[in-house]
Amino acid sequence: xxxxxRRLQEAEDRRAKKRGRAPQKRRxxxxxxxxxxxxxxxxxxxxxxxxELKRVSWPTRTQMVAFxxxxxxxxxxxxxxxxxxxxxxxEAVLWxxxxxx
Length: 101
Hints:
Elements: H1 3-19, H2 38-55, H3 61-100
């Protein structure tokens, strides 16, 4: 049971308590200290992941090409900038060391 469902269940239990009724026990609910087996928890998790992935707003092909192009250009520019700084400072240090001799 995920967080949202647990909160809804708790809110429903509070409303039922105010009305004077005992909260209904749901089928498959466990005692508070009881833990489900690992495979059942994993299967539940993967099912919830699948549901969430269906809700994702995936980019279109043109958006994906644009995002990839911007990423590659930016990465190349930053790499060249850092390479230039590294090369320049390296040459400057070598020049300073040669001047000392």
